[in-house]
Design a protein that fits this description.
- The chain is α/β, with parallel strands linked by helices.
- It has an 8-stranded mixed sheet with strand order 1-2-4-3-5-6-7-8, sandwiched between helices.
- Strand 7, helix 16 and strand 8 form a beta-alpha-beta unit.
- Helix 3 packs antiparallel against helix 4, helix 6 crosses helix 17 and helix 8 crosses helix 9.
- The mean pLDDT is 95.
């Protein structure tokens, strides 16, 4: 299903379609936006998505004023989702002020949506080094005061807890799990306002979040789960290797070595075996050749992933510094062996990020399960993006069985 002629725009818009079952947008809205956006024009994309988001905010305010809190919540949530997609094409440094403004509006709007949940979401600030991680604790509807399992929901490369709530949190709450959302460095406020990049030792990020979960009286300390998606498929096993208070972990998709995928990509740009063997070191002439391909205007998605998103979120300034950072993003054999909790590893059939998911699964010595999502089920893309409901069904069924959850 293609709505936008520009592949980068269509990629972002498809996320809205994936969130449709959970209130993040709908097909008609994406179709209307596609007619409004000028092909390949990131400013036009941003403006159109922000305009629609503001209309949803105004609709939500009117609904709230007229005593319709459910409708108001739905409008605010949809607006927050649209705002997140609006600024995606603007990623990069120097940070575009439009992105900053839209991000702040997104977070304010999401706060309004969370305040209208029943029970309302509880905003937290989790201590992290010299700052705090923004977080939300959400109680399972109908079980607000019951001690129940909690899923700590983390994100990936370019998500905030808005997208993580839509992609994972809503389904978990419906199934009776409490949910603890958090944004770490390189995500959300810590990236946009504080300039903190991602880090490969993600356990340092999540251990304070687990501490926060233990301090909440309705969290079952024996049934704490860490689940994250996209780049989070590397984060989750990294966390489980060092954080042994987890009762289960979900890596969606499992990732044993993130950097090697980028090194493999370098072969596509003509690097020979000797040059690849020397990575992350890159000869100046090879860097020039690679960057000419990356900067090709006909491959906007590649430029966005490496230069705009990659450099910004990973604190890199050029290709060598980016590849040097990516080389750190791998699990060593002793780290995989240290994972003790039951682990679910997923892979999507046509997703490059899933390329070493089976390698991770095979290396695990803990209780483990492997699920493959197929193209035939419409779930073979990255993070099962256009059939997220199927992924959530199977993942939460596994958690139910693993944690002995009943209703």
């Amino acid at each position: 299903m293609v709505f936008f002629s520009d592949s980068l725009h269509d990629e972002f818009a498809s996320l809205i379609l994936g969130f449709a079952p959970y209130g993040g947008g709908d097909v008609g809205e994406v179709q209307a936006l596609a007619l409004e956006v000028k092909a390949g024009d990131d400013g036009s994309f941003f403006d159109a998505f922000v305009r629609l988001a503001r209309r949803r905010i105004e609709e939500g305010e009117a609904a709230a004023a007229n005593g319709h809190p459910v409708s108001a919540h739905d409008c605010y949530l949809r607006a927050a989702s649209l705002l997140g997609m609006a600024y995606h094409p603007l990623y990069g440094t120097p940070v575009d002020p439009r992105l900053v403004d839209a991000f702040h509006l997104q977070m304010d709007t999401f706060d309004r949506a969370m305040a209208l949940l029943d029970p309302p979401g509880e905003k937290l600030e989790v201590p992290y080094e010299h700052t705090t991680q923004p977080a939300y604790f959400l109680r399972a509807p109908g079980h607000a005061n019951e001690v129940r399992p909690v899923i700590i929901v983390g994100g990936g490369w370019d998500s905030t807890y808005v997208e993580n709530y839509l992609g994972i949190g809503v389904a978990a709450l419906r199934r009776g799990y409490h949910v603890l959302l958090h944004d770490g460095p390189g995500q959300g406020r810590l990236l946009v306002d504080e300039g903190l990049p991602l880090r490969h030792d993600w356990d340092k990020v999540v251990t304070p979040v687990v501490d926060a979960a233990f301090a909440i009286d309705v969290v079952d300390p024996d049934r704490i789960v860490y689940e994250s998606w996209s780049l989070g498929g590397y984060f989750a096993p990294r966390v489980a290797a060092y954080e042994h208070r987890l009762a289960a972990m979900v890596a969606d998709p499992g990732q044993l070595d993130v950097g090697v995928k980028f090194f493999e990509l370098m072969k596509m740009f003509g690097l020979g075996p000797d040059a690849v063997a020397k990575l992350p070191a890159v000869a100046p002439e090879d860097e020039k050749s690679i960057m000419a391909a990356v900067e090709d205007k006909d491959n906007r998605s590649l430029r966005w992933k490496i230069v705009q998103r990659g450099y910004w979120t990973n604190g890199a300034t050029d290709l060598p510094s980016y590849l040097t950072e990516m080389a750190k993003w791998k699990l060593e054999a002793d780290e995989v062996a240290a994972i003790r909790c039951p682990t679910l590893v997923t892979a999507a059939e046509s997703d490059m990020a899933s390329s070493n998911a089976k390698d991770l699964y095979d290396a695990l010595t803990c209780p483990k399960t492997f699920i493959t999502f197929s193209d035939a089920d419409g779930a073979g893309m990255h993070c099962e993006g256009l059939n997220r409901s199927m992924a959530n069904r199977l993942i939460i069924d596994w958690l139910d069985e693993t944690l002995h959850v009943h209703g």
